[in-house]
Amino acid sequence: MDRRENIKVLLAGTVATGFLISSGCAPDDIKKSESIIAAGLYGRTPKEIEVDSKLMADTFFSDHEKKIVSLISEIIIPKDDVSIGATEAGVTDFIEFMVKDYPKFQLPIRGGLMWLENLSWATFDNSFVVITPEQRIILVDKIAWPDTAEEDMLYGVKFFNLMRNLVCTGFFTSKEGIKDIGYVGNRPNQWDGVPAEVLKKHGLSYDEKTLKECLKIEDQHKIVQWGEKGNIIG
Amino acid sequence: MQKGKVELYTDAMVREVLTDEKGMATGVLYIDKKDMKEYKIGAKVVVLAASACETARIMLNSKSKLHPNGLSNSSGVLGRYLHDSTGTDRMGFMPELVDRTRYNEDGVGGLHVYSPWWLDNKKLNFPRGYHIEYWGGMGMPSYGFGFGMDTMRKYITDEVGNPSPNGGYGPALKNDIRRMYGSMIGMSGRGESIPQYDNYCDIDPETVDKFGIPVLRFHYNWTKHEVNQAKHMHETFEEILTGMGAVLLGKKPDETTQNGLAAPGRIIHEVGTSRMGDDPKTSVLNKYAQAHECKNLFVTDAGSFVSQADKNPTWTILALSWRTSEYIIDQLKKQNI
User: Fold this and answer.
1) What is the pTM of this model?
2) Which of A75, A91, B178, B222 could disulfide-link A86, Cβ–Cβ 3.0 to 4.6 Å?
3) Are the beta carbons of B169 and A8 separated by less than 8 Å?
4) Complex ipTM, two decimals?
Protein backbone atom coordinates (compact mmCIF):
# COMPACT_ATOMS: atom_id res chain seq x y z
CA MET A 1 0.00 0.00 0.00
CA ASP A 2 1.49 3.37 -0.95
CA ARG A 3 1.37 6.47 1.20
CA ARG A 4 -1.60 8.01 -0.54
CA GLU A 5 -3.62 4.78 -0.14
CA ASN A 6 -2.59 4.69 3.51
CA ILE A 7 -3.95 8.15 4.13
CA LYS A 8 -7.18 7.29 2.32
CA VAL A 9 -7.72 4.37 4.68
CA LEU A 10 -6.75 6.51 7.64
CA LEU A 11 -9.21 9.25 6.75
CA ALA A 12 -12.02 6.77 6.11
CA GLY A 13 -11.16 4.78 9.23
CA THR A 14 -11.07 7.65 11.69
CA VAL A 15 -14.36 9.06 10.54
CA ALA A 16 -16.03 5.66 10.56
CA THR A 17 -14.85 4.52 13.99
CA GLY A 18 -15.04 7.83 15.79
CA PHE A 19 -11.61 8.15 17.30
CA LEU A 20 -8.44 6.11 16.92
CA ILE A 21 -8.27 5.72 20.69
CA SER A 22 -11.32 3.45 20.75
CA SER A 23 -9.96 1.06 18.12
CA GLY A 24 -6.79 0.05 20.01
CA CYS A 25 -3.60 -1.26 18.40
CA ALA A 26 -3.20 -4.63 16.74
CA PRO A 27 -0.08 -6.61 17.84
CA ASP A 28 1.31 -6.31 14.30
CA ASP A 29 0.99 -2.51 14.43
CA ILE A 30 2.77 -2.36 17.78
CA LYS A 31 5.58 -4.54 16.43
CA LYS A 32 5.92 -2.35 13.34
CA SER A 33 6.04 0.90 15.31
CA GLU A 34 8.57 -0.53 17.76
CA SER A 35 10.87 -1.52 14.89
CA ILE A 36 10.61 1.98 13.38
CA ILE A 37 11.50 3.59 16.74
CA ALA A 38 14.37 1.13 17.33
CA ALA A 39 15.88 2.02 13.95
CA GLY A 40 16.09 5.64 15.08
CA LEU A 41 14.05 6.81 12.12
CA TYR A 42 10.93 7.83 13.98
CA GLY A 43 9.46 11.06 12.64
CA ARG A 44 12.49 11.83 10.50
CA THR A 45 12.41 12.93 6.88
CA PRO A 46 15.02 11.46 4.49
CA LYS A 47 16.89 14.78 4.65
CA GLU A 48 16.99 14.68 8.46
CA ILE A 49 18.15 11.06 8.47
CA GLU A 50 20.99 12.12 6.18
CA VAL A 51 21.98 15.00 8.51
CA ASP A 52 21.74 12.76 11.61
CA SER A 53 23.81 9.99 10.04
CA LYS A 54 26.55 12.40 9.03
CA LEU A 55 26.58 13.95 12.50
CA MET A 56 26.86 10.57 14.19
CA ALA A 57 29.65 9.43 11.86
CA ASP A 58 31.77 12.54 12.56
CA THR A 59 34.27 12.75 15.42
CA PHE A 60 35.07 16.07 17.11
CA PHE A 61 37.19 15.38 20.19
CA SER A 62 40.64 13.79 19.92
CA ASP A 63 41.24 10.88 22.31
CA HIS A 64 43.26 13.21 24.51
CA GLU A 65 40.52 15.85 24.63
CA LYS A 66 37.94 13.15 25.35
CA LYS A 67 39.96 11.98 28.37
CA ILE A 68 39.99 15.50 29.82
CA VAL A 69 36.24 15.86 29.21
CA SER A 70 35.64 12.55 31.04
CA LEU A 71 37.82 13.57 33.98
CA ILE A 72 36.07 16.94 34.33
CA SER A 73 32.63 15.30 33.98
CA GLU A 74 33.33 12.88 36.80
CA ILE A 75 34.62 15.70 39.03
CA ILE A 76 31.41 17.73 38.41
CA ILE A 77 28.97 14.83 38.87
CA PRO A 78 30.67 11.93 40.68
CA LYS A 79 29.14 8.64 41.78
CA ASP A 80 27.46 8.94 45.20
CA ASP A 81 25.09 6.99 47.47
CA VAL A 82 22.14 7.67 45.19
CA SER A 83 23.41 7.13 41.67
CA ILE A 84 26.28 6.50 39.26
CA GLY A 85 28.62 9.26 38.05
CA ALA A 86 28.52 11.34 34.87
CA THR A 87 30.95 9.26 32.79
CA GLU A 88 29.14 6.00 33.47
CA ALA A 89 25.87 7.73 32.55
CA GLY A 90 27.32 8.52 29.10
CA VAL A 91 27.95 12.25 29.56
CA THR A 92 31.20 12.25 27.55
CA ASP A 93 29.35 10.94 24.48
CA PHE A 94 26.55 13.44 25.16
CA ILE A 95 29.04 16.34 25.07
CA GLU A 96 30.66 14.95 21.91
CA PHE A 97 27.16 14.95 20.36
CA MET A 98 26.35 18.46 21.59
CA VAL A 99 29.48 20.09 20.15
CA LYS A 100 28.69 18.55 16.77
CA ASP A 101 24.99 19.40 16.91
CA TYR A 102 25.62 22.96 18.16
CA PRO A 103 28.87 24.13 16.51
CA LYS A 104 28.98 27.33 18.62
CA PHE A 105 30.22 25.15 21.50
CA GLN A 106 33.22 23.91 19.51
CA LEU A 107 35.56 26.87 19.87
CA PRO A 108 34.98 27.66 23.58
CA ILE A 109 35.25 24.00 24.58
CA ARG A 110 38.30 23.17 22.47
CA GLY A 111 39.95 26.43 23.55
CA GLY A 112 38.98 25.88 27.19
CA LEU A 113 40.44 22.37 27.23
CA MET A 114 43.65 23.75 25.76
CA TRP A 115 43.70 26.59 28.32
CA LEU A 116 43.29 24.04 31.15
CA GLU A 117 46.10 21.93 29.69
CA ASN A 118 48.36 25.00 29.61
CA LEU A 119 47.50 25.73 33.26
CA SER A 120 48.26 22.11 34.16
CA TRP A 121 51.68 22.21 32.45
CA ALA A 122 52.49 25.61 33.97
CA THR A 123 51.53 24.47 37.49
CA PHE A 124 52.57 20.81 37.64
CA ASP A 125 54.73 20.44 34.53
CA ASN A 126 52.45 17.75 33.18
CA SER A 127 49.17 17.14 31.33
CA PHE A 128 45.79 17.28 33.15
CA VAL A 129 45.42 13.63 32.16
CA VAL A 130 48.63 12.59 33.92
CA ILE A 131 48.63 14.67 37.13
CA THR A 132 47.18 13.18 40.35
CA PRO A 133 43.47 13.52 41.30
CA GLU A 134 44.49 15.87 44.14
CA GLN A 135 46.42 18.07 41.71
CA ARG A 136 43.40 18.16 39.38
CA ILE A 137 41.22 19.44 42.23
CA ILE A 138 43.79 22.18 42.94
CA LEU A 139 43.37 23.37 39.34
CA VAL A 140 39.59 22.94 39.28
CA ASP A 141 39.26 24.96 42.51
CA LYS A 142 40.82 27.91 40.68
CA ILE A 143 37.99 27.96 38.09
CA ALA A 144 34.95 26.32 39.74
CA TRP A 145 33.84 29.19 42.00
CA PRO A 146 32.75 32.17 39.84
CA ASP A 147 32.12 34.58 42.74
CA THR A 148 35.59 34.26 44.29
CA ALA A 149 37.87 33.32 41.37
CA GLU A 150 41.03 35.35 40.68
CA GLU A 151 40.75 37.72 37.75
CA ASP A 152 43.34 35.92 35.63
CA MET A 153 41.28 32.70 35.97
CA LEU A 154 38.14 34.13 34.29
CA TYR A 155 38.83 32.28 31.00
CA GLY A 156 38.77 29.06 32.96
CA VAL A 157 35.68 30.11 34.95
CA LYS A 158 33.73 30.72 31.76
CA PHE A 159 34.84 27.38 30.34
CA PHE A 160 34.02 25.52 33.54
CA ASN A 161 30.55 27.16 33.73
CA LEU A 162 29.82 25.80 30.26
CA MET A 163 31.16 22.36 31.16
CA ARG A 164 29.12 22.35 34.39
CA ASN A 165 25.96 23.18 32.42
CA LEU A 166 26.57 20.41 29.89
CA VAL A 167 27.61 17.79 32.44
CA CYS A 168 24.67 18.50 34.77
CA THR A 169 22.13 18.52 31.96
CA GLY A 170 23.72 15.47 30.33
CA PHE A 171 23.59 13.54 33.58
CA PHE A 172 20.10 14.51 34.75
CA THR A 173 18.56 13.83 31.33
CA SER A 174 20.09 10.34 31.20
CA LYS A 175 18.04 7.34 32.29
CA GLU A 176 19.97 7.09 35.57
CA GLY A 177 19.78 10.83 36.16
CA ILE A 178 16.01 10.94 35.67
CA LYS A 179 15.71 8.10 38.18
CA ASP A 180 18.01 9.99 40.57
CA ILE A 181 16.03 13.25 40.40
CA GLY A 182 12.86 11.31 41.18
CA TYR A 183 10.76 12.23 38.14
CA VAL A 184 7.53 10.23 38.43
CA GLY A 185 5.53 11.41 35.43
CA ASN A 186 5.10 10.01 31.93
CA ARG A 187 2.19 7.89 33.15
CA PRO A 188 -0.91 8.43 31.05
CA ASN A 189 -4.17 8.45 33.04
CA GLN A 190 -2.29 8.30 36.33
CA TRP A 191 -2.68 11.84 37.62
CA ASP A 192 -4.60 12.32 40.85
CA GLY A 193 -3.74 15.88 41.79
CA VAL A 194 -1.37 17.01 44.50
CA PRO A 195 -1.18 14.45 47.35
CA ALA A 196 -3.11 15.58 50.43
CA GLU A 197 -0.03 15.40 52.69
CA VAL A 198 1.92 17.72 50.34
CA LEU A 199 -0.89 20.26 50.35
CA LYS A 200 -1.04 20.06 54.14
CA LYS A 201 2.69 20.86 54.36
CA HIS A 202 1.97 24.19 52.61
CA GLY A 203 -1.17 24.85 54.68
CA LEU A 204 -3.51 24.01 51.78
CA SER A 205 -6.14 21.42 50.87
CA TYR A 206 -8.60 20.69 48.09
CA ASP A 207 -12.14 21.73 48.89
CA GLU A 208 -14.98 19.20 48.89
CA LYS A 209 -16.65 20.76 45.85
CA THR A 210 -13.52 20.33 43.71
CA LEU A 211 -12.97 16.77 44.89
CA LYS A 212 -16.57 15.92 44.05
CA GLU A 213 -16.33 17.41 40.54
CA CYS A 214 -12.95 15.88 39.65
CA LEU A 215 -12.32 12.51 38.08
CA LYS A 216 -12.00 9.70 40.60
CA ILE A 217 -8.73 7.82 40.13
CA GLU A 218 -10.64 4.51 39.99
CA ASP A 219 -12.58 5.84 36.96
CA GLN A 220 -9.45 6.85 35.07
CA HIS A 221 -9.80 4.25 32.30
CA LYS A 222 -13.53 4.79 31.68
CA ILE A 223 -14.22 6.36 28.29
CA VAL A 224 -16.98 8.91 28.07
CA GLN A 225 -20.05 7.87 26.03
CA TRP A 226 -21.35 10.33 23.49
CA GLY A 227 -24.93 10.48 22.25
CA GLU A 228 -25.93 10.95 18.61
CA LYS A 229 -25.96 14.72 18.94
CA GLY A 230 -22.49 14.80 20.44
CA ASN A 231 -23.73 15.23 24.02
CA ILE A 232 -22.19 13.27 26.88
CA ILE A 233 -24.55 10.54 28.05
CA GLY A 234 -22.41 8.57 30.48
CA MET B 1 -20.41 7.24 5.02
CA GLN B 2 -18.53 6.86 1.76
CA LYS B 3 -14.91 5.81 1.98
CA GLY B 4 -11.86 6.50 -0.15
CA LYS B 5 -13.10 9.83 -1.48
CA VAL B 6 -10.09 11.90 -0.50
CA GLU B 7 -7.01 12.32 -2.67
CA LEU B 8 -4.21 13.88 -0.64
CA TYR B 9 -1.22 15.42 -2.47
CA THR B 10 1.77 15.73 -0.16
CA ASP B 11 5.09 17.50 -0.83
CA ALA B 12 3.14 19.89 -3.03
CA MET B 13 4.25 23.53 -2.81
CA VAL B 14 1.44 25.68 -4.21
CA ARG B 15 2.67 28.66 -6.20
CA GLU B 16 -0.62 30.20 -7.29
CA VAL B 17 -4.34 29.84 -7.69
CA LEU B 18 -5.25 29.57 -11.37
CA THR B 19 -8.16 31.63 -12.70
CA ASP B 20 -10.19 31.79 -15.93
CA GLU B 21 -11.17 34.75 -18.10
CA LYS B 22 -14.03 35.58 -15.71
CA GLY B 23 -11.65 35.72 -12.77
CA MET B 24 -12.98 32.52 -11.20
CA ALA B 25 -10.61 29.96 -9.67
CA THR B 26 -10.00 26.89 -11.83
CA GLY B 27 -7.48 25.09 -9.61
CA VAL B 28 -3.95 25.46 -8.32
CA LEU B 29 -0.45 25.23 -9.70
CA TYR B 30 2.10 23.51 -7.48
CA ILE B 31 5.74 22.43 -7.50
CA ASP B 32 6.32 18.81 -6.48
CA LYS B 33 9.08 19.00 -3.85
CA LYS B 34 10.44 15.59 -4.89
CA ASP B 35 10.85 16.04 -8.64
CA MET B 36 10.82 19.89 -8.67
CA LYS B 37 8.36 19.96 -11.56
CA GLU B 38 5.20 22.03 -12.01
CA TYR B 39 1.77 20.40 -11.84
CA LYS B 40 -1.78 21.69 -12.11
CA ILE B 41 -4.87 20.43 -10.32
CA GLY B 42 -8.31 21.51 -11.53
CA ALA B 43 -11.03 22.30 -9.00
CA LYS B 44 -14.59 23.57 -8.75
CA VAL B 45 -13.80 25.23 -5.46
CA VAL B 46 -10.38 26.22 -4.05
CA VAL B 47 -9.94 26.45 -0.27
CA LEU B 48 -6.70 27.98 1.01
CA ALA B 49 -5.56 27.03 4.51
CA ALA B 50 -1.81 27.49 4.23
CA SER B 51 -1.49 29.63 7.41
CA ALA B 52 -2.29 33.35 7.31
CA CYS B 53 0.95 34.65 5.79
CA GLU B 54 1.45 31.82 3.29
CA THR B 55 -2.16 32.13 2.11
CA ALA B 56 -1.61 35.87 1.55
CA ARG B 57 1.58 34.99 -0.34
CA ILE B 58 -0.23 32.57 -2.63
CA MET B 59 -2.99 35.09 -3.29
CA LEU B 60 -0.56 37.98 -3.88
CA ASN B 61 1.41 35.76 -6.26
CA SER B 62 -1.77 34.80 -8.17
CA LYS B 63 -1.79 37.78 -10.51
CA SER B 64 -3.84 37.83 -13.70
CA LYS B 65 -5.51 40.35 -16.02
CA LEU B 66 -8.59 40.52 -13.81
CA HIS B 67 -6.61 40.32 -10.57
CA PRO B 68 -3.62 42.60 -11.27
CA ASN B 69 -2.77 43.19 -7.56
CA GLY B 70 -3.10 39.57 -6.61
CA LEU B 71 -6.24 37.51 -6.23
CA SER B 72 -9.28 39.37 -4.84
CA ASN B 73 -7.17 42.38 -3.93
CA SER B 74 -8.57 45.47 -5.64
CA SER B 75 -9.02 46.84 -2.09
CA GLY B 76 -5.26 46.59 -1.50
CA VAL B 77 -5.98 45.12 1.92
CA LEU B 78 -4.51 41.66 1.19
CA GLY B 79 -1.47 41.12 3.45
CA ARG B 80 -2.44 44.08 5.68
CA TYR B 81 -3.67 44.10 9.29
CA LEU B 82 -1.22 41.29 10.00
CA HIS B 83 -1.09 40.87 13.78
CA ASP B 84 0.35 38.50 16.35
CA SER B 85 -0.32 38.06 20.08
CA THR B 86 1.84 40.05 22.47
CA GLY B 87 4.17 38.12 24.74
CA THR B 88 6.73 38.51 27.50
CA ASP B 89 7.93 36.30 30.38
CA ARG B 90 9.47 36.28 33.85
CA MET B 91 10.71 33.65 36.24
CA GLY B 92 11.27 33.24 39.97
CA PHE B 93 12.65 30.79 42.49
CA MET B 94 10.47 29.59 45.37
CA PRO B 95 12.45 28.84 48.54
CA GLU B 96 9.35 27.14 49.97
CA LEU B 97 9.55 24.58 47.16
CA VAL B 98 13.10 23.35 47.85
CA ASP B 99 13.30 19.64 48.82
CA ARG B 100 9.94 18.79 47.35
CA THR B 101 8.11 15.52 47.90
CA ARG B 102 8.16 13.78 44.50
CA TYR B 103 4.87 13.03 42.78
CA ASN B 104 3.49 13.13 39.25
CA GLU B 105 3.20 16.72 38.06
CA ASP B 106 3.00 16.13 34.31
CA GLY B 107 0.66 18.57 32.64
CA VAL B 108 0.44 20.86 35.65
CA GLY B 109 2.28 23.79 34.11
CA GLY B 110 1.12 25.89 31.20
CA LEU B 111 -2.40 26.59 32.40
CA HIS B 112 -3.78 29.73 30.75
CA VAL B 113 -5.36 31.81 33.50
CA TYR B 114 -7.45 34.92 33.02
CA SER B 115 -5.44 36.89 35.51
CA PRO B 116 -5.13 39.78 36.15
CA TRP B 117 -8.60 40.60 34.83
CA TRP B 118 -9.93 41.06 38.27
CA LEU B 119 -8.82 44.65 37.60
CA ASP B 120 -10.83 47.51 36.11
CA ASN B 121 -9.95 47.73 32.42
CA LYS B 122 -10.93 51.40 32.17
CA LYS B 123 -8.10 52.55 34.40
CA LEU B 124 -5.36 51.04 32.23
CA ASN B 125 -3.22 52.90 29.69
CA PHE B 126 -3.81 50.30 26.98
CA PRO B 127 -6.93 48.71 25.46
CA ARG B 128 -7.87 45.01 25.54
CA GLY B 129 -6.04 42.61 27.83
CA TYR B 130 -3.91 39.52 28.38
CA HIS B 131 -3.81 36.25 30.26
CA ILE B 132 -0.93 34.65 32.15
CA GLU B 133 0.37 31.15 31.56
CA TYR B 134 1.90 29.75 34.73
CA TRP B 135 4.62 27.15 34.48
CA GLY B 136 6.91 25.15 36.70
CA GLY B 137 6.66 21.77 38.37
CA MET B 138 8.57 18.53 38.45
CA GLY B 139 8.56 17.82 34.73
CA MET B 140 10.84 15.37 32.95
CA PRO B 141 14.35 16.87 32.82
CA SER B 142 15.12 17.98 29.29
CA TYR B 143 18.05 19.78 27.67
CA GLY B 144 18.88 22.82 29.82
CA PHE B 145 17.93 21.17 33.12
CA GLY B 146 20.71 21.86 35.65
CA PHE B 147 22.02 24.86 33.74
CA GLY B 148 22.85 28.12 35.53
CA MET B 149 24.21 26.76 38.80
CA ASP B 150 26.99 29.36 38.46
CA THR B 151 24.42 32.05 39.37
CA MET B 152 21.51 30.21 41.00
CA ARG B 153 23.10 27.78 43.42
CA LYS B 154 23.32 30.52 46.04
CA TYR B 155 19.54 30.33 46.53
CA ILE B 156 19.89 26.90 48.13
CA THR B 157 20.54 27.12 51.88
CA ASP B 158 21.53 24.47 54.43
CA GLU B 159 19.77 23.63 57.76
CA VAL B 160 21.21 26.70 59.50
CA GLY B 161 20.47 29.03 56.59
CA ASN B 162 23.92 29.30 55.02
CA PRO B 163 23.68 29.67 51.24
CA SER B 164 25.57 27.31 48.94
CA PRO B 165 28.39 28.91 46.96
CA ASN B 166 27.66 29.61 43.28
CA GLY B 167 29.19 27.14 40.84
CA GLY B 168 31.26 24.32 42.30
CA TYR B 169 31.30 20.59 41.58
CA GLY B 170 31.01 17.19 43.22
CA PRO B 171 28.48 15.50 45.52
CA ALA B 172 27.34 18.80 47.08
CA LEU B 173 26.51 20.29 43.66
CA LYS B 174 24.73 17.07 42.62
CA ASN B 175 22.65 17.24 45.78
CA ASP B 176 21.78 20.93 45.39
CA ILE B 177 20.37 20.22 41.92
CA ARG B 178 18.17 17.50 43.45
CA ARG B 179 17.02 19.92 46.15
CA MET B 180 16.20 22.62 43.59
CA TYR B 181 14.08 20.34 41.36
CA GLY B 182 10.59 21.80 40.88
CA SER B 183 11.27 25.07 42.72
CA MET B 184 11.17 27.40 39.70
CA ILE B 185 7.97 29.29 38.82
CA GLY B 186 7.53 31.11 35.55
CA MET B 187 4.92 33.29 33.97
CA SER B 188 4.23 34.09 30.34
CA GLY B 189 1.90 36.94 29.50
CA ARG B 190 0.02 36.60 26.21
CA GLY B 191 -2.20 39.42 25.10
CA GLU B 192 -4.24 41.06 22.42
CA SER B 193 -2.65 43.50 20.01
CA ILE B 194 -4.46 46.11 17.96
CA PRO B 195 -4.56 45.33 14.20
CA GLN B 196 -2.94 48.09 12.12
CA TYR B 197 -3.27 48.88 8.44
CA ASP B 198 0.46 49.69 8.40
CA ASN B 199 1.50 46.29 9.73
CA TYR B 200 1.63 44.05 6.69
CA CYS B 201 3.41 41.54 4.51
CA ASP B 202 3.92 42.00 0.78
CA ILE B 203 5.81 40.29 -2.02
CA ASP B 204 9.56 40.89 -2.09
CA PRO B 205 10.30 42.09 -5.65
CA GLU B 206 13.86 40.67 -5.59
CA THR B 207 13.82 37.35 -3.75
CA VAL B 208 12.48 33.88 -4.51
CA ASP B 209 12.59 30.63 -2.49
CA LYS B 210 14.19 27.42 -3.78
CA PHE B 211 11.02 26.63 -5.74
CA GLY B 212 11.38 29.89 -7.63
CA ILE B 213 8.38 31.41 -5.84
CA PRO B 214 8.63 35.08 -4.74
CA VAL B 215 8.81 35.34 -0.93
CA LEU B 216 7.16 37.70 1.55
CA ARG B 217 8.58 40.79 3.23
CA PHE B 218 7.30 41.89 6.63
CA HIS B 219 6.63 45.43 7.86
CA TYR B 220 5.54 45.44 11.47
CA ASN B 221 5.92 47.80 14.43
CA TRP B 222 4.32 47.52 17.85
CA THR B 223 2.38 50.60 18.95
CA LYS B 224 2.35 52.17 22.43
CA HIS B 225 -0.67 50.00 23.28
CA GLU B 226 1.32 46.77 23.14
CA VAL B 227 4.40 48.31 24.77
CA ASN B 228 2.29 49.61 27.69
CA GLN B 229 0.63 46.24 27.98
CA ALA B 230 4.01 44.50 28.31
CA LYS B 231 4.97 46.92 31.10
CA HIS B 232 1.75 46.05 32.90
CA MET B 233 2.49 42.33 32.46
CA HIS B 234 5.89 42.70 34.11
CA GLU B 235 4.49 44.72 37.00
CA THR B 236 1.89 41.99 37.53
CA PHE B 237 4.48 39.18 37.31
CA GLU B 238 6.58 40.88 40.00
CA GLU B 239 3.58 41.51 42.21
CA ILE B 240 2.45 37.89 42.04
CA LEU B 241 5.93 36.36 42.37
CA THR B 242 6.88 38.62 45.28
CA GLY B 243 3.51 38.06 46.92
CA MET B 244 3.99 34.30 46.90
CA GLY B 245 7.45 34.59 48.41
CA ALA B 246 9.52 33.96 45.29
CA VAL B 247 12.99 35.34 44.58
CA LEU B 248 12.79 37.25 41.28
CA LEU B 249 15.30 36.00 38.70
CA GLY B 250 16.68 38.25 35.99
CA LYS B 251 15.78 41.92 35.68
CA LYS B 252 12.52 43.62 34.79
CA PRO B 253 12.99 44.79 31.19
CA ASP B 254 12.60 48.51 30.53
CA GLU B 255 11.60 50.74 27.60
CA THR B 256 14.93 50.15 25.79
CA THR B 257 13.59 46.67 24.91
CA GLN B 258 9.92 47.74 24.62
CA ASN B 259 9.46 46.28 28.11
CA GLY B 260 10.61 42.85 26.96
CA LEU B 261 7.83 42.59 24.37
CA ALA B 262 8.61 39.67 22.05
CA ALA B 263 9.23 40.61 18.40
CA PRO B 264 6.15 40.37 16.16
CA GLY B 265 5.83 36.77 14.96
CA ARG B 266 7.49 35.20 18.01
CA ILE B 267 4.20 34.08 19.58
CA ILE B 268 3.31 32.45 16.21
CA HIS B 269 -0.33 33.55 16.25
CA GLU B 270 -0.12 35.43 12.97
CA VAL B 271 -3.60 36.40 11.72
CA GLY B 272 -5.52 38.99 9.74
CA THR B 273 -3.84 39.07 6.30
CA SER B 274 -7.05 38.44 4.31
CA ARG B 275 -9.56 39.93 6.72
CA MET B 276 -13.29 39.35 6.37
CA GLY B 277 -15.93 42.09 6.18
CA ASP B 278 -19.13 43.21 4.47
CA ASP B 279 -17.42 45.99 2.52
CA PRO B 280 -15.22 44.77 -0.38
CA LYS B 281 -13.36 48.09 -0.25
CA THR B 282 -11.92 47.32 3.19
CA SER B 283 -11.82 43.53 3.29
CA VAL B 284 -10.70 40.56 1.19
CA LEU B 285 -13.28 37.95 2.27
CA ASN B 286 -16.96 38.07 3.18
CA LYS B 287 -18.39 36.73 6.44
CA TYR B 288 -18.19 33.14 5.15
CA ALA B 289 -14.48 33.59 4.33
CA GLN B 290 -15.40 33.61 0.63
CA ALA B 291 -13.28 35.94 -1.52
CA HIS B 292 -15.27 39.05 -2.50
CA GLU B 293 -13.86 39.03 -6.02
CA CYS B 294 -13.55 35.29 -6.63
CA LYS B 295 -16.67 33.47 -5.44
CA ASN B 296 -15.25 29.95 -5.58
CA LEU B 297 -12.20 30.78 -3.48
CA PHE B 298 -12.29 30.40 0.32
CA VAL B 299 -9.74 30.89 3.12
CA THR B 300 -9.97 28.69 6.21
CA ASP B 301 -6.91 29.72 8.19
CA ALA B 302 -6.48 32.75 10.47
CA GLY B 303 -6.12 35.09 7.48
CA SER B 304 -9.83 35.91 7.82
CA PHE B 305 -9.53 37.21 11.41
CA VAL B 306 -10.34 40.88 11.86
CA SER B 307 -8.98 40.78 15.39
CA GLN B 308 -8.02 38.11 17.86
CA ALA B 309 -8.33 37.97 21.61
CA ASP B 310 -5.37 37.11 23.84
CA LYS B 311 -5.95 33.41 23.21
CA ASN B 312 -4.58 30.95 20.67
CA PRO B 313 -6.32 31.25 17.28
CA THR B 314 -6.70 27.53 16.49
CA TRP B 315 -10.15 26.90 17.92
CA THR B 316 -11.56 29.94 16.17
CA ILE B 317 -9.98 28.68 12.94
CA LEU B 318 -11.77 25.35 13.48
CA ALA B 319 -15.12 27.01 14.17
CA LEU B 320 -14.86 29.32 11.15
CA SER B 321 -13.74 26.42 8.92
CA TRP B 322 -16.78 24.44 9.96
CA ARG B 323 -19.01 27.39 9.11
CA THR B 324 -17.29 27.88 5.74
CA SER B 325 -17.54 24.15 4.94
CA GLU B 326 -21.30 24.18 5.51
CA TYR B 327 -21.60 27.31 3.39
CA ILE B 328 -19.63 25.73 0.53
CA ILE B 329 -21.95 22.68 0.54
CA ASP B 330 -24.99 24.95 0.62
CA GLN B 331 -23.69 27.10 -2.25
CA LEU B 332 -22.78 24.06 -4.36
CA LYS B 333 -26.27 22.62 -3.83
CA LYS B 334 -27.81 25.93 -4.92
CA GLN B 335 -25.41 25.98 -7.88
CA ASN B 336 -24.21 29.45 -6.90
CA ILE B 337 -20.58 28.43 -7.28
Assistant:
1) 0.86
2) A91
3) no
4) 0.85
